[in-house]
Amino acid sequence: MPTYDESNAQCLVYSYKDGLLSKIAHDLKHRVTRFKVRVDPRTGAVEADVDATSLRVECVVKDGAELSDGLSAEEKRKIEGQIMKDVLHADVHPLIHFRSTRVSPADEGMHIEGALSLNDCERPVQTLARRVEHGYQADITIHQPDFNIKPFSAMMGTLKIKPEVVVRVIVPAS
Predict the structure, then answer these.
(1) Is 70 helix (H, G, I), strand (E, B) or coil?
(2) pLDDT of 151
(3) Quick check: 116 and 97 in contact, CB under 8 A?
(4) Helix extents (H) in the chain
(5) Where are the domains of the chain?
(6) pLDDT tens for residues 105-136?
(7) Global confidence as pTM
């Protein structure tokens, strides 16, 4: 069974600013540094495990462009700590798990339906794994409150993160 991890695949999370003071905040690209994705070559079934403590801020995204100098190392560490402690509660729920329940061919790739377990909640999710240059890319939009997650907020709610985050998984074609 092919297995993908941080050495040969990518798991990225995109979060977006919101609120009255959003002009001083940042949209962010995060990288998951410990994960495993297993694909059954016979059935196409997909299973994935993500270490919630391994989410790292990679860069600021502004108008679709990635800016490597948008945050200092200290600011990144502070954001990562807040995400792990206050958003994901990774000390209590360190594992995020996905299990497909149905995989079917689609014009652009594979349609995947499954169950996502996050923060001790399991919810159905679906995505299209689209064929890209050298592999497949699947984007899943997660509405944080569906998983009992309160999106980050500061300064009495004038600076916050939108409830929706996008998880992008890119695996090589086999």
Answers:
(1) coil
(2) 80
(3) yes
(4) 73-82
(5) 3-172
(6) 999 899 999 999 999 999 999 999 999 988 99
(7) 0.91
- Tokens at 165, concatenated: 């985050």
Residue holding tokens 């074609």? 173
Give the closest residue to 18 by CA, choosing from 141, 153, 167.
153
Contact 52, 45 (CB under 8 A): no
Give residue 157's pLDDT: 56
Buried b (16+ CB within 10 A) or exposed e, 63-102: eeeeeeebbeeeebeebbeebbeebbebeebeebebebee
φ/ψ of 92, rounded to 5, equals -100, -35
Measure the CA angle with vertex 130, ends 126 and 132; round to 5°: 150
The pLDDT of 50-70, averaged and rounded, is 90
Structure tokens at 102: 């149905």
Do 120 and 93 form a contact (C-beta atoms < 8 A)?
yes
- Mean pLDDT along residues 1-5: 89
CATH no., domain 3-172: 2.40.128.110
Report the chain's mean pLDDT, rounded to a whole number.
90
| Cβ(20)–Cβ(51) below 8 Å | no
Confirm if 83 and 56 have CB atoms less than 8 A apart.
no
